[in-house]
Every structure is written in C-alpha cells, then in structure tokens.
Amino acid sequence: MLATAWFAVAATAAGSHAGGHGHDESAIGQPGEVARVSRTVQVDMADTMRFTPAKVTVKRGETIRFVVKNSGQLKHEFVLGKTKDLKEHYEVMKKFPEMEHAEPNMVTVAPGQTGEVIWQFTKAGPVDFACLHPGHYDAGMKGSIKVAPAK
User: Fold this and answer.
1) Tens of pLDDT, residues 105-126
2) What is the pTM of this model?
C-alpha cells in the first residue's frame, strides 16, 4: 500500500517524460550519442558539497562525455538542467530522498564510484548542474556550463 502511494506521488511529479520531474531537455540540449562525443570532461564530486570543476565551457553543437567521480563517502548525483527545473526537482527529492533516477541528463554515483552522462548541447546559453540529494544543493553543490555559440 505504501509503495503504491509512493509510486502515485512519484508519477505525479514525473512530468512529460519517464521520471522527468518536468525537466525540459530541449532547453538544455539532448542525450548525446557515444559516436559523436567531441571531448570528455572529468568532474569530481566531494563531501565538501562541491563539484570540481564548478564551471565548464562548451560550444553549441558539442557532445560532451561527463565522467563523474564521487570521491566522497556520501552518495552524490550530477544533474544537468536549468536553475528553475533543478530547484523544482530538488523540492521533490527533499520529500523522497531515496528516489532513484534513470534519465539521460543525470547520474547517481555511490561513494568511490564513477558514472557518466553523454550530452549534446544544442542551444547557446547557460545550463546548470547540481546534486539534488537533500541538503547538498542548499550547501552549494552546484555548477554552471556556458554554452558558447558555434563558430
């Protein structure tokens, strides 16, 4: 019964695509194809509630492989999105802290492990990333991506 209620609430928060929580992928790009990866960006997540690097620059049209390492002792995640969407998703995560995701714009990484996100940035402008585990976002675990116009 409790599991059914949880799924009903999670489904209500899911948005327009499977588990999406309303994220507008088209505003930040689209899932990338491995064959089109133009470069790899290494990202470290630490229990200091920081990403290294916290700022990344890419070009519009580029497909980036983010290799995300969790060097801490806590579970962390790397989620791409617009600030508004990330804040909305964070509010849901505070209510359901054990929620797991299987979306192309995010990866949850256990302590000492590595995950990846392959993403194509189709529009110039800002894109953000964050860890949405309860307390992490509020502690400053977020970063920014500048998507520069293609030359």
Assistant:
1) 999 999 999 999 999 999 999 9
2) 0.81
Alpha helices in the chain (DSSP H): 2-13, 25-28, 83-95
Beta strands in 4-135 (DSSP E): 30-31, 39-46, 50-52, 55-59, 63-70, 76-81, 106-109, 114-120, 125-130
Which residues have CB under 8 Å from 14's CB, separation 6+?
A: 20, 21
Place 25 in a pLDDT band, splitting at 50, 70 and 90: low
Question: CA-CA distance, 18 to 103, in Å (whole number)?
Answer: 8
SS3 of residue 99 by DSSP = coil
Cα separation, 112 vs 45, in Å, equals 10
